[in-house]
Structure formats: C-alpha cells, structure tokens
C-alpha cells in the first residue's frame, strides 16, 4: 500500500512539474518583480501537493523544476515513513466542518453534522489517515452503529461530503464510500406521535 502511495505521490509531482506552466495562473501581484528584480528571471507559483498548497520561488524554469523534484523526493521519502504524506482523518474532518460546512449551513444542520462527526466519525475513524479508509473500514463503521437506518444515513451523508472533499483536494483518487459492497441496514425509525393541543 505504501509503495503504491509513494508511486502516486512521485507521479503526481512530476505531472505537476510538467504541466505547471499551463495549469497555474499567477495574479499580477504574484508575478510582479520586486524593486531591482529582472522581470523575466523571477518565478513565484503556488502548487498543490497532497492537498497542501505550497509556494515555490525560483530564478529560472530549471531551478523551479529542481525544486519540484526535491519536493517529490521529500514526499516519496515521507510516504515510506510511518506517517508519510498521509492526512489524519480526525484533523481533516474537523477542518472541513469549520471551513466549508458550518459557515454555509443552518445552525440546526451544523449541530446535526457535528453530532455525527463527534459520535461516529472521529470516535471510529479519527486515528486513521484518509488514505487508509477503504470500503471495508466504512462497512465496519456502519456495522458498529446501533440504531435506525436513518441515523446511519446521516452519518453516510457527512462522511460522503468529507471524502468527496478529499478527492477534490487530491488526497485520494476516489471516494471509498461509493463502493457497491457497502450495505447500510437498520431498524425503521419510530413514527412520530401526533401532537395534541
């Protein structure tokens, strides 16, 4: 698994280096030379490596390519270490909630999402890296939840949004929750009693 991650990391870095000139657009402020600098000799580009944005500064395209290659080597070495270029799920889901979810939804929905995150996602998957989460891991999560199917579907909703965000950030290539193997079962919710006045 780690060797594959390392190869993906190296491949992604070289693809980034090769396609950088076409894919990165710098603003006028980013590309403007500082006082006394030669306009054509300074490069300042933002790149995204394993979901993290980094700025690379160089005096030439060759220096820029060398710095990209160096970042790939660092990534390759760290993937083989115990932590690697992996992203802790607990930290990632908390950041996702605070940055993307909570500010853009109603308070009651935010409270429901926070409850799903705290009670199920972080308590079960919080110590794993996002890269370690597979369909089997997700099925074990749903199997461990006692309760109505509707409760499990709320957990699924939040987990799906987090994993889709990780795909968009380039941390994982596909969302493991989309596997056809995953089954969510449970009791039907109890009917709400009619209100009387």
Head-to-tail CA distance between termini: 61 Å
Poorly predicted runs are 1-8, 20-33, 76-83
The CATH class of the largest domain, by name, is Mainly Alpha
Fourth-level CATH superfamily of the largest domain: Tyrosine recombinase, N-terminal domain
Strand order of the largest sheet: 1-2
Based on the structure given, which CATH architecture of the largest domain is correct?
A: Orthogonal Bundle
Count of the separate structural domains: 2
Helix content: 40-55%
Largest sheet: 2 strands, antiparallel
Task: Please report which band the strand proportion falls in: under 5%, 5-15%, 15-25%, 25-35%, 35-45% or over 45%.
Answer: 5-15%
Query: Over the alpha carbons, how many angstroms does the gyration radius reach?
Result: 22 Å
SS summary, helix count: 7
The CATH topology of the largest domain is given as DNA polymerase, domain 1
Strand count:
2
Basic shape: elongated
Averaged pLDDT, please? 77
What order do the SSEs take from the amino end to the carboxyl end, as H and E? HHEEHHHHH
Structural class by helix and strand composition? mainly alpha
Write up this protein.
The protein is mainly α and 197 residues long. The chain folds into two domains: 2-80, no CATH class; 89-178, Tyrosine recombinase, N-terminal domain (DNA polymerase, domain 1, Orthogonal Bundle). Helix content is 55%, strand content 7%. It has seven helices and two strands. It has helices spanning 2-23, 28-31, 61-80, 89-101, 107-125, 135-144, 149-168; strands spanning 43-49, 52-58. It has a two-stranded antiparallel sheet with strand order 1-2. A hairpin with a 2-residue loop joins strand 1 (43-49) and strand 2. The longest helix has 22 residues, at 2-23. The chain is elongated, with a radius of gyration of 22 Å. The chain starts with a helix and ends in a 29-residue tail after the last helix. Residues 1-8, 20-33 and 76-83 have low confidence and may be disordered.
């Amino acid at each position: 698994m780690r060797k594959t991650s390392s190869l993906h990391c190296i491949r992604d870095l070289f693809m980034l280096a090769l396609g950088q000139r076409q894919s990165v657009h710098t603003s006028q402020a980013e590309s403007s030379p500082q006082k006394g600098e030669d306009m054509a000799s300074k490069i300042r580009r933002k790149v995204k490596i394993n979901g993290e944005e980094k700025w690379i500064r160089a005096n030439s395209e060759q220096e820029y390519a060398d710095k990209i290659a160096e970042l790939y080597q660092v990534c390759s070495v760290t993937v083989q270490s115990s932590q690697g270029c992996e992203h802790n799920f607990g930290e990632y889901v908390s950041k996702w909630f605070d940055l993307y979810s909570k500010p853009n939804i109603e308070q009651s929905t935010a409270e429901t999402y926070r409850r799903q995150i705290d009670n199920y996602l972080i308590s079960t998957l919080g110590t794993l890296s996002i890269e370690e989460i597979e369909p089997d891991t997700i099925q074990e999560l749903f199997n461990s939840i006692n309760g109505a199917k509707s409760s499990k579907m709320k957990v699924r909703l939040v987990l799906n949004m987090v994993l889709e965000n990780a795909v968009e950030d380039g941390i994982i290539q596909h969302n493991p929750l989309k596997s056809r193997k995953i089954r969510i079962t449970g009791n039907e919710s109890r009917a709400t009693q009619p209100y009387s006045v």
